[in-house]
């Protein structure tokens, strides 16, 4: 397991100061408007501060991953890619997991959340499950990511750290509580059974049903 070093921590702290400053500015502005100490005013200020902080954080994170993308493949120790990963990991372990893993965002808004976090998401695709490292994922249109499923484009195996794209075609259903590991490709019209484990680098063709632990090809699905 890699440790986040002092320099990435300082960089992360500098980036974090942006949403913190925005929240402070909002607080100063709001408390001059909602001066009466009523419960409603208190609630409005707290809710506004939380929204400002997390919205600012998402914007800063998006800006960061656009400017400093983590390269696909293995990350060598001491590399620039590992440095970017450490800063990104600090965002995730401290804040983004709170939103993504705990499903605070209502399902109809999840596509917007994952798009901000870097995923490519087609029309009418929604997420009841969790997508880690969204910048390494692509989803076509009409995809159902089932309740409690998880998509993990990173490989953390002892000292090994790598990221591989997970690509999901159109009209795919990922069953509830399925786990999709790094490098997987799921063709259009396909389905992954509930509670299945799709191992690393699996290629599922178009209109195929896969299920089980590890997931295996079950049968072809109708094309209409
Ligand atoms: C995979 C699935 C689509 C199969 O449904 P089906 O077409 O009716 O197929 P069957 O139930 O006849 O099962 C076909 C074979 O797959 C196996 N199978 C079915 N679901 C499985 C699963 N989740 N894990 C492992 N094996 C599974 C069956 O045991 C059967 O094996 P057999 O032929 O050796 O007896 C369905 O079981 C499933 O998991 N749907 C996911 C729904 C879901 O979670 N949606 C998202 C909600 S948020």
Summary, kept brief:
By secondary structure, this protein is α/β, with parallel strands linked by helices. The chain has 4 helices and 18 strands. The protein has helices at 6-33, 39-67, 80-100, 110-116, and strands spanning 73-74, 120-121, 126-127, 130-131, 137-139, 144-145, 150-152, 154-157, 160-163, 166-168, 173-174, 179-181, 185-186, 191-192, 197-198, 203-204, 208-211, 216-220.
Shape: globular
Helix content: 25-40%
In DSSP terms, counting alpha (H) and pi (I) runs of 4 or more, how many helices? 4
Beta strand count: 18
- Give the overall average pLDDT: 94
The name of the CATH architecture of the largest domain is 3 Solenoid
Enumerate the strands of the largest sheet in spatial order, edge to edge or round the barrel. Answer: 3-6-11-14-17-18
Write a structural description.
- The protein has about 220 residues and is an alpha/beta fold.
- It folds into 2 domains: about 1-100, no CATH class; about 105-224, UDP N-Acetylglucosamine Acyltransferase, domain 1.
- Helix content is about 40%, strand content about 20%.
- It contains 4 helices and 18 strands.
- It has helices spanning about 5-35, 40-65, 80-100, 110-115, and strands at about 75, 120, 125, 130, 135-140, 145, 150, 155, 160-165, 165-170, 175, 180, 185, 190, 195-200, 205, 210, 215-220.
- The protein has a 6-stranded mixed sheet, with no helix packed on it. It has a 5-stranded parallel sheet with strand order 2-5-10-13-16, with helices on one face. Strands 4-7-12-15 form a 4-stranded parallel sheet, with no helix packed on it.
- α1 runs antiparallel to α2, α1 (about 5-35) runs parallel beside α3 and α2 (about 40-65) packs antiparallel against α3 (about 80-100).
- The radius of gyration is 20 Å and the shape is globular.
- The chain starts with 5 loop residues before the first helix and ends with a strand.
- The mean pLDDT is about 95.
- The structure holds coenzyme A.
């Amino acid at each position: 397991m890699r440790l986040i070093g002092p320099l990435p921590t300082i960089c992360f702290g500098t980036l974090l100061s942006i949403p913190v400053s925005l929240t402070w500015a909002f607080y100063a502005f709001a408390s001059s408007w909602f001066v009466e100490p009523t419960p409603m005013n208190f609630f409005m200020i707290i809710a506004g501060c939380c929204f400002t902080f997390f919205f600012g954080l998402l914007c800063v994170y998006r800006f960061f991953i656009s400017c400093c993308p983590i390269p696909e493949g293995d990350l060598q120790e001491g590399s620039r890619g590992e440095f970017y990963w450490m800063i990104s990991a600090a965002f995730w372990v401290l804040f983004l997991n709170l939103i993504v893993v705990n499903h605070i965002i209502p399902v109809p808004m999840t596509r917007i959340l994952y798009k901000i976090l870097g995923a490519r998401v087609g029309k009418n695709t929604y997420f009841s499950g969790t997508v880690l490292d969204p910048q390494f994922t692509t989803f076509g249109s009409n995809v159902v990511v089932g309740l409690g499923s998880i998509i993990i484009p990173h490989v953390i195996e002892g000292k090994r750290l790598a990221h591989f794209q997970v690509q999901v075609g159109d009209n795919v259903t990922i069953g509830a509580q399925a786990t999709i590991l790094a490098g997987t490709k799921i063709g259009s019209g396909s389905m992954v059974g509930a509670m299945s484990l799709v191992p690393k680098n699996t290629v599922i063709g178009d209109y195929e049903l896969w299920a089980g632990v590890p997931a295996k090809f079950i049968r072809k699905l109708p094309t209409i």
